[in-house]
Design brief:
single chain, Helix Hairpins, mainly alpha, 2 domains
């Protein structure tokens, strides 16, 4: 619910800033409310199942998975609704921001990713945590994922491709949390290294090209 509320607040603030039409605002509000209601029903189902069947039971698992699936479907529907409404407001502005930096060179892309990998290995060695390919500070997977996503964003200057690549980078980072290989701090640190170093290297290559 905390994540849903944070997302809802972000969307509502964007709506106020972008000045969408009343009909579009109503559709977005309805989508947000549907997700919140689905999450509440999911919580209610889980509470009732735990009350009736404290131990493990296959039917209890089906009930919980189905309720969680309903939340996922509602969230996907809200995401589609949000994209269809907000894309015409957000995408042109995001494209203008990407265009300000210009397309990155192939050499700059390769160099930036290599530098990110080297920095991750150095930091892990300095902190004495994990191995180059597993665990430790920072998350190498998050660093490389966000490095590639940043490079693709500036190579294509396409808002949709950029957002899809950033979404994949977030999914890669989230998988490290789900597998309990990294903490949130390690993942965020890696993401900042990947995106920040790549952006800096690409800007330097553009400046001195």
């Amino acid at each position: 619910m905390r994540i849903h509320f944070i997302a809802a607040i972000a969307v509502l603030l964007a709506v106020l800033f972008l000045k969408v039409s009343p009909l579009e605002f109503a559709l977005l509000a309805l989508s947000i409310l549907s997700v919140l209601c689905a999450e509440m029903f999911n919580t209610a189902v889980e509470a009732v199942v735990d009350l009736v069947s404290p131990g493990y039971h296959p039917l209890a698992k089906i009930a919980k998975d189905t309720a969680a699936g309903a939340v996922l479907i509602a969230a996907c529907g809200a995401a589609i609704m949000g994209y269809l409404i907000l894309a015409k407001y957000v995408m042109p502005r995001y494209g203008e921001v990407l265009g300000m930096f210009g397309s990155a060179s192939d050499m700059g892309t390769v160099v930036s990713v290599l530098i990110v990998v080297i920095i991750v290995v150095i930091v892990k060695s300095a902190t004495g945590t994990g191995t180059p390919l597993h665990g430790g500070i920072p998350s190498g997977h998050a660093a490389v994922a966000f490095s590639v996503a940043t490079a693709v964003s500036f190579n294509t200057c396409d808002p949709l491709i950029s957002l899809l690549c950033l979404s994949l980078a977030v999914m890669v980072s989230h998988s490290r949390l789900l597998m309990k290989i990294h903490t949130m701090r390690e993942v965020l640190f890696g993401a900042c290294i990947g995106a920040g170093v790549t952006l800096l290297v690409l800007l330097l290559f553009k400046l001195y090209a």
